[in-house]
Amino acid sequence: MRIRESKLIYDGWTRFLVLEVEGPDGQRVTKAVLDHGESACVLPYDSERRTALLVGQQRVPQLYLGQAEPSLEAIAGRLEPDEAVEESIRREAEEEAGLRLRELEKVATCWASPGVSTERIHLYLAAYSPADRTGPGGGRAEELENIEVKETALSELARRADLGSITDAKTMLLIQTLRLRQPHLFA
Predict the structure, then answer these.
(1) Containing H/E element for 25?
(2) Which residues contact 13 (CB under 8 A, 6 or more apart)?
(3) pLDDT: which is higher, 106 or 148
(4) Measured between alpha carbons, how far is 13 from 35 in angstroms, rounded to an integer?
(5) What integer pLDDT is reported at residue 145 of this predicted model?
(6) Where in the chain is the domain with CATH 3.90.79.10?
(7) Which residues are registered as beta bridge partners of 17?
(8) Are 74 and 168 a contacting pair, CB within 8 Å?
(9) Which of 24, 87, 96, 123 would bridge with 107, disulfide CB 3.0–4.6 Å?
């Protein structure tokens, strides 16, 4: 396959393109691409108290589909231009959850939705303790984030994962990875 033509439709917080793609047999098809850049995500957990810090946030696409309740998610955000992944994770943890992170444990780098988006997301786990809390968090007011920080028992997260009520894929992946790597924390 190869790209024959690219049209930029929208250029703002993200970019939206329409591409004409040609297959090996010469057949052409139009595809939409959301050029979103890279993101980073972390699930902070306290192994002593067996808790994790997550955030609750109402998401506009979910609201559009009729889901009014906030989504429960691991801390995440887009990388700023020329920002290192670990720097982004630490910045997002401070902004969203009022949390200073030290050591980060890499899990994976995955495509968020490869059929339509260029976004790759870097996934991490990070240990924390109450002494690492620096403030209330809540996100950036100018972005209407209105984030609620939720410290949740790991056993409760495992229960929700087993019931299928963790609906955010990156959060589910990080919970399950922590369960595999440190199952004793979920007992």
Answers:
(1) none
(2) none
(3) 106
(4) 10
(5) 63
(6) 38-186
(7) 8, 33
(8) yes
(9) 123
Is the four-CA dihedral 70, 75, 79, 83 of positive or negative sign?
positive
48: left (phi over 0), alpha (psi -120 to 50) or beta: alpha
Rounded-to-10 torsion of CA 97, 99, 101, 107 = -20
Domain spanning 38-186: which CATH class is it, in words?
A: alpha beta
Closest CA to 77 of 15, 152, 139, 141: 139
Q: Which residue has the tokens 């057949």?
A: 27
- E strands, the chain, are 2-11, 15-22, 28-35, 38-46, 51-57, 71-73, 75-78, 105-111, 120-127, 148-153
Find the length of the chain: 187
- At residue 58, the 3 state secondary structure works out as coil
The SS3 assignment for 4 reads strand
Overall pTM > 0.85? yes
> Do residues 163 and 125 lie in contact, with contact meaning Cβ atoms separated by under 8 Å?
no
